[in-house]
Design brief:
This protein is of the alpha/beta class. It is 32% helix and 20% strand. It has 11 helices and 19 strands. It has helices spanning 16-24, 76-88, 108-120, 133-141, 154-175, 184-197, 204-213, 246-252, 285-295, 313-323, 388-401, and strands spanning 3-8, 29-32, 41-45, 48-52, 65-68, 73-74, 97-100, 104-105, 201-202, 218-221, 259-267, 270-272, 307-309, 311-312, 327-331, 341-349, 364-371, 405-409, 417-419. Strand 3 and strand 4 form a beta hairpin. The longest helix has 22 residues, at 154-175.
């Protein structure tokens, strides 16, 4: 059966949570393969809104196994809080969740370091989520991190945290000139988290390989988006992991040919949070504010207003080519209904002979203007009922990206999905 990957095709916040929830209905396993609590995956069910940061979006379906893979960085304190909040909403979920023994742990000091380094950087302020993501991946690569299996033995865990704190304090005092932190400041929270999360530690790769042999249905849930990829995004304004299809293999410990479908999720327009180039960002504040308000474009994790822009066809093609999208899902199409015409960047104007995604600040988008559909899409269930203008917009996206649009999300609710 293979693994079906859900990837954010743009700058994150494409609405992956809802799409993963949709596919989870028939899934045995949903697994996150990268990122951590920087993600905020929103699912609306009736009156209830769920924002999931680390727990995979399959958790809202009973009996779906939800795995946090090796490629993630897992914050045990935040994770305990997230599980508690789900339990308070009546979702008893601990038996569904597994945490990879070799995923790395985000410590409170990582979060502190993320904030300190952002505050100290004038020229290269990234606008991170301050969830400790970059510092934790950095420690993993420097081979001084704390893998999740350390949680299994309280004494070993405490020793590992103390040793790690000594390293971190050196940086905090010597580079940033700030006073050191003591283990005791975090001890209580860490002990509680150790107790709550240690029973969840498992071998995620093995679980998924067994499930593949058993012909089970497996969804790999991406976080962030392709343009935030550490290597293939707009470096240095990126996250520290690999949100694309290629990240799944190493992030879950599965052979690449186990991936049989990769669905790219694209908003009908573009948004970005944090710093960094954004070629199609709308300069006209009236239009930008209209789009932000119509789309409720505020970060699910940090509450920051998202920067808004038009659909970037150049980057959509880049993203589709890089990730081998078998199909595409367009989200938030309903948000554009009020606009008379919809610009799409089909090319860039640039004099740079070696243009690449790390030079996006040097391009001007060349727009083609398509007529708006001026129709409420939110109640449509049959793709044949889409207005012709909207059908044409979808065909433009298909022509540019080279992948078929297999589904369209026309509202936040679970059932507001139109299959094509
Ligand atoms: P970090 O992942 O917190 O280190 O942040 C690095 C960059 O990625 C910043 O520009 C963040 O705003 C952005 N980012 C991280 N997670 C998300 C996400 O889930 N959605 C959108 N942007 C994100």
């Amino acid at each position: 059966m293979g693994i079906h990957v859900i990837v954010g095709g743009q700058w994150g916040d494409e609405g992956k949570g809802k799409i993963v929830d949709y596919f989870s209905e028939s899934a045995d396993i949903v697994a996150r393969y990268q990122g951590g609590a920087n993600a905020g995956h929103t699912v609306f069910i009736g009156e209830n809104q769920f924002v999931l940061h680390q727990v995979p979006s399959g958790i809202l379906r009973q009996n779906t196994r939800c795995l946090l893979g090796t490629g993630m960085v897992i914050d045990p304190i935040e994770m305990s809080r997230e599980i508690r909040e789900l339990e308070e909403k009546g979702i008893q979920c601990t038996s569904q969740i597994g945490v990879a023994y070799n995923a790395h742990l985000v410590m409170p000091i990582h979060r502190i370091l993320d904030g300190i380094s952002e505050d100290a950087s004038d020229e290269q302020f990234i606008g991170t989520t301050r969830r400790g993501i970059g510092p934790t991946y950095a420690d993993r690569h420097a081979r001084i991190g704390i893998p999740a299996h350390m949680l299994l033995d309280r004494t070993e865990f405490e020793q590992a945290v103390q040793l790690h704190l000594t390293h971190a304090n050196k940086m905090i005092t010597e580079i940033y000139g700030q006073p050191p932190y003591q283990y005791e400041e975090f001890a209580e929270q860490l002990e509680e988290a150790q107790e709550k999360i240690s029973p969840l530690v498992t071998d995620v790769s093995d679980e998924i390989l067994q499930a593949l042999h058993g012909q089970q249905t497996i969804i790999a849930e991406g976080a962030q988006g392709v343009m935030l990829d550490l290597d293939y995004g707009s470096y240095p304004y990126v996250t520290s992991s690999h949100p694309g299809t290629a990240g799944v293999s190493v992030g879950l410990g599965i052979p690449p040919d186990a991936i049989t479908r990769s669905t790219g999720i694209f908003k009908a327009y573009c948004t970005r949070v944090g710093e960094g180039p954004f070629p199609t960002e709308i300069a006209d504040q009236d239009h930008a504010v209209r789009l932000r308000e119509a789309g409720g474009e505020y970060g699910a994790t940090t509450g920051r207003p998202r920067r808004c822009g038009w659909f970037d066809g150049v980057l959509a093609k880049y993203s589709a080519d890089l990730n081998g999208f078998t199909d595409i899902c367009i989200t938030k199409a309903d948000v554009l209904s009020e606009f008379d015409e919809i610009p799409v960047a089909e090319n860039y104007e640039t004099n740079d002979p070696f243009l690449n995604v790390q030079k996006l600040d040097k391009v001007n988008p060349a727009y083609t203007y398509y007529p708006g559909w001026k129709t409420d899409l939110t109640g449509i269930t049959d793709p044949n009922d889409f207005p012709e203008t909207f059908q044409r917009y979808l065909m433009v996206i298909e022509r540019i990206s080279g992948a078929p649009v297999s589904m369209v999300s026309v509202g936040p609710e679970r059932n507001q999905i139109v299959k094509r």
